[in-house]
Design goal:
Six copies of one chain form a homohexamer. Chain A is of the alpha/beta class and 309 residues long. Chain A has a single domain (15-308), classed as Arginase, Chain A, CATH 3.40.800. The first copy, chain A, is built from nine helices and eleven strands. Chain A has helices at residues 50-58, 96-113, 127-132, 165-172, 191-199, 207-212, 214-220, 254-267, 287-303, and strands at 28-35, 68-70, 75-77, 83-88, 114-121, 140-145, 176-184, 203-206, 226-232, 269-276, 307-308. In chain A, strand 2 (68-70) and strand 3 form a beta hairpin. The mean pLDDT of chain A is 95.
Chain lengths: 309, 309, 309, 309, 309, 309
């Protein structure tokens, strides 16, 4: 029997939820799947440690039975929502095609069990195999929060690095109708990738645009659609989240990024959600993981809406 | 004989002020008392090292005889104000009642010697024994800058952790009429604590409110009262001050927090001031301590007002 | 279904063993219990994070079904030994008597379930409540690997800090006949504590003695007894394990410390084993946790002896 | 033959430009000169490592043949601009007059070879010998982005520390007509220095002013002049760039600082540009160097203007 | 013209040697080739940064024209030996077969230009493509200093990770007659790999053996052969070199490891030498890179033998 | 009134001794003087922070009234010895001649007040002005524990860096008859310096010699002389003390270095003692400062000899 729990006690699972293997038979409202894969990072590695670090950090935000309470609105969220930690996909290291196969398969299994699958990367390359688990959908959209476009045909000699997941996904998934990218601000960009994305009808919104008018940006998001939300940690300003492979100055504030995520969740049917590119080893203060954990919680709060007490 | 002094020379004392033990007889305008106690932290410890770290960092802001000069207004502050470092309270480690007794006693002694006692924690639990040193006041108020309410009846099996100091204080001190809390934004909050605080008439102001309208918040602060100012380092945004046990995103900017502190000091009679929950070990860049030291200096500047040259 | 597992995948448990709560009914050969309690540390805290860090680090040493293979002797150890992670005791933070009560109770429950309970602290104060779980034994001994005696009557105003666990234990447990302390080398020692320990017949062996003649030291260890092994991480030289509250130069090598632990295990009946005072936050290289995890594994190897293939 | 290059491959040079020694004969549009000198820092050293760290970090922003592409305006900058890394000045360590002599001489040589010399410090004291390389100009101006005035007659017993470069420069260079300082916000300021600067007609603009109205500040900058831009990394808010000797809260955002630099470059003839006081050792996250490298690139982009594709 | 040089000045190259691209035509006695590839690391990444870090650190050991002087023997080594930094191989990131092809090709080119090629990894997987550059040799041997055997058929789903380079090499290179492995001490070993290595006649020597009798170990090394020396940084004790992916306690001292390397070099014809698995990001003290740089220098000293003055 | 004191409480002074300014009149047995000067370091700076860091760390070894107790010999040392912290010399930063003048003057003043002056650097350049304070002695010797000779005529363009203090001292002080250097092991040595030192009759003993036979080395030390002991932190192996500018592998163990220091103290009349080149910023684990503090204590113990109880 457990007593009142401190944040750091017990084998760490996401938000202190029970761990249930995908090999077992179970159902839940929300399932977390870790994807400790960062072999596709072309700069500073470390995102492989994010599932572990987010399990630890999220212990600080473990919701009670009544969820979270907002004192300003006197409302609760996540009340009674059943969370499960479904463990991690085991990467096949160098053999990325096999790793990607395992990721797609695990995502499919998780989709079959839960109302909302939450994927915790890993680098952004994993979003391609994750999206393959949605190949059955006739029409869906991606909202991507990201400093970078990640739509390169190839980079550093490979077509499957973390610069290309959305290029690969749209090639393979006819149901993926469009990608809305919010937060762009890389310096060394790839003109071909931008032109290809625009040619395909993707919506490309810079971080500067968000700062100028968040409300205009929110209006451009999809409505009433099936949407997969892909949150690259580097969309946030590095002062908020320094622990990421390729930080870029002048990023979104946490509130801005959360507003985009919230509007996405509230205006559409969320079919999946990933948080990628958080590299805890690059932030000795530990706050990057805390920010990531809080973000997971608040996006879930948007989905499992605030109910009056 | 000392020459021009570099910031890091000499045995470190607060702002290079002389050290005078409370065992000796002396008087001064401002007295600093360190309280290296963080045994009540339920998450990441380290605030026990804050008095030492702030002594070191404050060497960089040691005021000259003429105090600090503001080039925009051509005014000075802290001119000729006599500062003393009164040393630290020695905690009794696990025996918190004894530690608290020593803290209260040292605070009483300091109050008897100086115009303004400044307490440097330590975690926030120490504000309870510090406030006990004001039991003689018939009516006074607390302005608390904090991300968290710290008004829980109990937590993790104890009623005296850093989640409860103000609950304990109001129970014991009839003179403590109300607490104004500014900067609230925790995610995993305690509904009962919020309701109890409101029921007692406390003013609870979120960080979001401060961002929306700082001037409205300033208007809600007490006026013309005896006020104790309790500054929890985590009220600041973690990008400004990452070195704290429980950082929370979307905190106050330094300017916002200073404005609240300044307005408090200028509109009331400041009877005491603490800075707590700064954990220097959690910030390898060292800037958290520099921010804390500068904050101490600028709050004192508000009190020992700018005089035309 | 899991594939070949990388060290860092999955919710971390000790050596990737299954987690089974003490609230459930189960039996195993070895059970690990974490005790994330470091409120009794009078210097640099952090041992509260050791259970989490050792769970993560031990993933690198997760034994396969056949245990570990030694290529020089062509033998295996830990073959087929059933390990369970029994989770953590939840400390009651400031209320040490309640924390200690919970620790003793959990230890008792674990003793009832497993052949060998392994306790992962936490600071050394927890060994006192752990030893209370052996109050039923008429005669048993402690072998303590430690740089410090930890036998003070009181320190810093308390009798229950990490300087006193063995003083408290011998006062309360008539069955605890003697303590063999190996590795002593503190500078600021407490003469009264040394005299009291010797008066009670404890064996006090310095690190210098170990360096002079390890074999003589091994001969002085108990034989054929019920023994509880208490391993304070600071017995190791800080170059081997820098992540500890109070490192002392000229400590034992890993091989020396392991030899003492092995001889203890092989020559006696091991009734319990703790590893304490490892503070992962004090070692940014991460190797302290890897050393601690390997030590746990190798002590278990001594117990579950090498069998020819 | 090189393939697509990852950021971190090859001997690091500024933006992966070729290294050409000043002992050789060559011409280029832009030449970088490192000045690994921080012996004049009176607080936390480390700027000596900035040239090396910026060479490494700038690998991530190595422009391709077509320069950088801005997807919002569909324009390019730095297209076809020839960059050269001219290596470092070797300081004579303690012998600052000799170090300064070498710096002036190397700057003169670089000026003779390139359209725009870019100097990477080192601490701010090096701007004095750098400016001496412009003694031939009859009239030129300095725009200084800085938290501190750096115009002290002397400090800590010396007239040549990083608190005094501009005082020394105006004494020696009749052509240096005025200094525009933007971003001032130090607490422990030197009244005499401020008065002397104002008496000489320097324009002193606080960080607060920039926040109040960036456009008004931009209007106060020089126009149509020969200008030397001196960028002290501490003008940026420490949340953006923590790696600097003397961080000061409430600094400029990256966008604000870049706007000031851009306006300076576009409205005038840029004769030289330095980036100083970046101390990579004070920022274990590595992002300070990335910010510095990006800033160098974007200032160059302002100079080698955006051309329609 | 350069003055006396400090360790950290100038674009960093190995030992401040000139950089010459493999695309150019040149000859030298010793050529360094960096291989910033660590995508095959199954635990803690970072070896991709070793070539850059060793270039920086080796600046401290830049030999003068007369090489290094040994005051005890009054001899010099490396006198007049011509060193060249040949740059890095650009990995193709995820596409390991392509990366390996590039590595082999670059190694071949370097072999054609220099008396002794020195390869700086990267993880240990790169030794396989490096050894392929010696396919022309009818008979040669490998001396491998390593904590781990690295002879697994496959691991974590791949046959090309850093656990398998020597298995792959012996399969492909009939000229590679045997591997002498010194320093073995992993805990979680692979019995099949050990048996396969022994079956093929490899010599497997534990770290324990080295401690027992270094001279006996030295006698077992090959004599009079063509030898490739592969130095895995983790053969060293983690107290000496903490910056490595998989540190193992009870490693070789620097003197022991150097003795093995020296004896190998002096008793045979050294055809190639690699230093791998140094991960500078895992050692914030920076000393791991300094140890690695010194080791490179001292192995070269063994090869370019001490000559009387 | 102080209670039992934790290590980290109170304004930090050396071993919690009272601070007495050299401007006041006092006498004591032992006086500590900090010299926070590292402007003469040609590699990694940080020794300027050593006096502050050693004040903090030495709190852990604050001797009680009875000094330290050795349980093996049942003896005490430092019993009743009066310690004073005399503060720091204020460097004149760039103006090294002025800094050196202040150091010499302060050392002279301290010598006039105490039985044994203990100097805490700072880099090794400060030993030259310290030794000048002994110009009145007709005959005295230096025992220097050091990895490097520090006897260069000049380096990097200066004759006063930390490579030359003993060259300068012997030039200026006829009474300084010889220097015994123990622990030498640098790689990039200066042949001229070695020859000059030998020509002057200095005794040069390598670290290798110490390892081969410590007793032979001890026999070579001076006897019955006035001796100044200069302890460069880098004489210790970097595994023991990583926090130093220029760590060199294969250094002395703590026990070996202490044995040399002890023998020096016991066999001679100790006239002064310095500890230099400890750079706390290069060791995030904090143990370098703890080692340095312990070393100070144990050298004092050798001087204020063990008395039977």
């Amino acid at each position: 029997m457990r007593h009142h729990e401190l944040a750091f006690t017990g084998p760490a699972t996401f938000f202190k939820a029970p761990y249930r293997s995908l090999a077992e038979d179970w159902r839940a409202e929300v399932g977390f799947l870790g994807i400790p894969y960062d072999f596709a990072v072309g700069y500073r590695p470390g995102a492989r440690f994010a599932p572990g670090a987010l399990r630890e950090a999220s212990g600080r935000f473990a919701p009670g039975a009544e969820g979270y309470f907002d004192f300003e609105t006197e409302t609760y969220c996540l009340q009674g929502v059943h969370l499960v930690d479904a463990g991690d996909v085991d990467p096949a290291q160098l053999e990325y095609q096999e790793s990607f196969r395992r990721i797609t398969q695990a995502a499919l299994e998780l989709r079959g069990r839960v109302g909302l699958p939450v994927f915790v990367g890993g680098d952004h390359s994993v979003t391609y195999p994750l999206l393959r688990a949605y190949a059955d959908l006739d029409e869906f959209y991606v909202v991507q929060l990201d400093a970078h476009l990640d739509f390169s045909e190839a980079r550093n000699g490979t077509r499957f690095a973390n610069s290309s997941p959305f290029r690969r996904a749209v090639e393979e998934l006819p149901g993926l109708k469009s990608v809305f990218v919010v937060g762009l601000r890389g310096l060394r960009t790839n003109p071909e990738a931008y032109r290809a994305a625009r040619a395909r009808g993707h919506r490309l919104i810079s971080a500067r645009k968000v700062r100028e008018s968040l409300s205009e940006v929110l209006e451009q998001l999809p409505r009433g659609q099936k949407v997969y939300l892909s949150f690259d940690a580097d969309v946030l300003d590095p002062s908020v989240l320094p622990g990421t492979s390729s930080p870029e100055v002048e990023g979104l504030t946490y509130a801005e990024a959360l507003a985009v995520a919230r509007e996405t969740v509230r205006g559409n049917t969320l079919v999946g959600f990933d948080l990628v590119e958080l590299a805890p080893n690059l932030d000795p203060s530990g706050r990057s993981s805390l920010v990531g954990a809080r973000l997971l919680a608040e996006v879930l709060c948007s989905r499992y809406r605030d109910l009056p007490t």
